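Regression check, flavin-adenine dinucleotide case 945:
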Amino acid sequence: MKKWDAIVIGAGHNGLVNACYLQRAGLDVLVVEKNDWIGGAAVSRSLTPGFLYSNCSYVCSLFRPEIMRDLELPRFGLQVISYEGGAVFTRDGDYLANYRDHHAHRREFARFSARDAEAYDRYARDVTRQCRFIQPLLMRTAPDPTSFRPRDISELLYLGKKFAGLGAAEMADTLRFWTMSISDFLDEYFETDVIKANFALSGIIGTALGPMSPGTAYVLLHHYMGEVDGSVGAWGYARGGMGAVTKALADSFRASGGTIRTGAEVEQVLVRSGKARGLVLADGEEIYGNLVISNADVKRTFLKLVEEKELPEIFLRRVKNFKMRGSSGKVNIALDSLPEFPALPKDSPCYRGDMHFTDSVERMERGYDDWKAGRWSADPFLDMVIPTTLDPTMAPPGKHFMSCFVQYCPPKVEGRDWTDADRDAFGETVISQIADYSPGFRDRIVHMEVRTPRELEAEVGLTEGNIFQGELTFDQLLFNRPVPGYAQYRSPVDGLYMCGSSTHPGGGVMGAPGRNAAAEILRDLSRGTKHMSPAHDVI
Amino acid sequence: MPKLSSARLTAQSHFRTLRLGTPFQPRIDALMKTNDWYDWGGYRAPASLWDEELEYFAIRSQAALFDISPMVKYRIEGPDGEDFLNRVTLRDVAKLKSGRVHYTAWCDDEGYVLDDGTLFRLAPDRFRLCCQERHLPWLLDSAIGFDVSVLEETEAVAGLALQGPTSVAVLREAGFAGVERLKVFDLAEFPHEGGRVTISRTGFTGDLGYELFAPAELALSLWDRLWKAGELRGIRAIGYTALNRARLEAGLIVANADFVTAEHAIRPDRVRMPDEIGLGFMVDLEKGHFNGRRAIAQARAKGSMRHVLVGLEIEGNIPAEHAIVYHKQKKEVGLVSAAIWSPMAKRNIALASLSRPYGDTITDDLWVEIYAMRELRYERLMKRARIVPRPFIKLDRRTASPPADF
Ligand SMILES: Cc1cc2nc3c(=O)[nH]c(=O)nc-3n(C[C@H](O)[C@H](O)[C@H](O)COP(=O)(O)OP(=O)(O)OC[C@H]3O[C@@H](n4cnc5c(N)ncnc54)[C@H](O)[C@@H]3O)c2cc1C
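Current build output:
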């Protein structure tokens, strides 16, 4: 009976990153994925002829360039293309655009407020300062503050030194930033509703919190700390959709000798004498390995795949209480022509960027009120992009793929399970919002995929449909992610590791959890990590 | 949200022109031969127009016309204008009489310089503040409690610098009667085409020179008026490269070139107090409270200022731009922010920021390391540098009253 050196549960991008690094270190690695395709939430699928969707994640910025390089992803076809700005449509028939050009950005804001136009520099400075503080932490294992191992102590010292390097005023700013609401934070810089709404959206994406909830300022940071080729904060489209990321990873993995099995759902992790020995698949097949690494979220892993008796009570309780409430849905649309938005000039670059219809923080917060009551937002917040304006590979010429990320969308509808009728009604809410700003929109629709937390959970395995495998609030970050004492990718079961977005530094198509987990595993095996680039310097 | 206006809608189209033209653009475009543009605050500005060397000599020998419209301008008006500006800026505005200009700077509450600029007192309760960076939120927030209005007027007001020994002759020829009576830092209004142009005896060259401000609609006729009058006085249009040489000879600093302004400093240690960039002389601790006062006074008392900006004279003739400054050829003590060979002083000059005590109590045995790229090879030179007072050149004609025709 074959015994693998390591078996990774799940072919999400983190599982694949992890598998790639282990395979390249000389291990014999198997990845098992329950779906018939790979990718998890970084996937491109064709559901109607001629069109390719980014079914879940749709824009790329966070994916670490160090990983792209180490794993030779460009050689395996990965290209990320920066896009230009975007716009918030306003109810009075105008819009507020974001332009990449610094002065165009200012002039655009000046159309609404001369004061806010000139407030942007200070805002950008403060957010950049916070990003520079966070960025170097992404590619390091979070220290365990209760441990006295030299590595933990030196990591803690590193954190402390970075923090101390901020100076008293910045230190206070950092603490506030990590705890305050995005709405309060923006009030310190801007006065105009639509300008605040424009920035606030980064504070709530994927988060079961409203713009007025404390902790949302940090979520904004999480969306700013990425980069496209050194341009920090920039976002881009992966050519071929987000599935191009996982396709390149899978090809790289196979090229280095790794094995992937799809259509193989793991039912249980085999544990004997407190140590992981392998897996049992849904069809009863047993697969043996020295190490098991789970890319599934922490709840799925420990509440579904591991027997309770193998886990300490306090760990179990904390995993149960880990917050990963679903808050978002997704509508993917195939269009037979480019939609028109009469408010937006035809030659506007905003068609190639992200578009929004929520023009005030108040409206966003009302959308959140619906979620709290267990309903999807009647007036939802959409993050809408048309990647085919820059990517010719996802639709036939002249036709387009439109991706709409939708907030808020609850894991259950007023306490009961979603039905197909609910899902269709949710889709209709989204389409009718778009159609309000784009006459004739419905007539262009060729095909549509509507996904609520129910679909996200069923397909990707994201518990409650939470897109980040766990909310990004300060109590669930760094050495507290996913739970205190287990922030270093290890678990209470020997030989069972975690590598998904539930772990530090969290969600998004970033690859850092998968990479950091590989580093820890190789350390435990006393294997070298020379094939892993250190994090790029932030100078 | 402000109500939808046709102005807001019309302004949408700005995205089609990322670098704006100034009100003088048609004239500058017509004279542009090098097509050597740069971005000045979102405007398409000439780095040079025909020959950067010769443009420099136009400043020093004739009259050079330089478009300063992209400079950021604020109109500050109201009965509390003086008190407000005293609260915001470092110098005592009570000492700035109506019809006068002074060079000043302003700081955040921690005493770090937000910008430097010129303050024009156009009338007892009307001012214009000209600077490099944008500060509307800062000015508006500081204005709370004062009976004063602050208006951004960069686009509405066109500006020209006319600099050089024949500049007064050009202005007189153009019919600005009495302009020769302006002393350095005086300003006066003159009629032009049914409107008014403000002329001040100010500039950025260390030479005899004037700056003219007019409503944007009057820009082209003002240019034409000067151009015609200057025909026999050698008037030439110039770009920034030439001006930059002149300003260095004059020892003047440029925000975000020679120091980093506080609202742009991403690295918290890059900010500077006035005393650290040679602007300590502006700080008036006697005039009452102003933004940053407590922090500056405290830093002075504790002796905690860590930097100093100095003028250097460097041996040889290779400009030391962005060179590292060493003490005893070994210890790194600072950085050159700007450097040229000065045609007027016949010396190799530079502005540099040094870490105290270097440049403060230790001023000898300073060196700069120059990497000169010559045909794909760095020639590395270690040259002696001497701290010298600024300005590097002093021209009597700058201050002569009345000024001579050349
Ligand atoms: C709708 C949506 C939009 C998003 N938009 C963006 C975006 O635009 N940009 C961005 O950066 N991030 C975005 N995200 C977040 C990002 O996609 C995720 O955080 C990230 O993809 C998670 O990757 P992962 O590898 O950690 O886990 P996952 O992608 O969740 O991978 C886990 C894998 O494990 C498999 N699995 C689970 N259980 C089992 C089992 N029992 N047996 C076998 N296999 C199993 C799953 O099928 C899946 O393939 C979005 C997420 C969603 C859902």
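Comparison notes: The mean pLDDT of chain A is 95. The CA atoms of residues 99 and 460 of chain A lie 34 Å apart. No diff flagged against the previous build.
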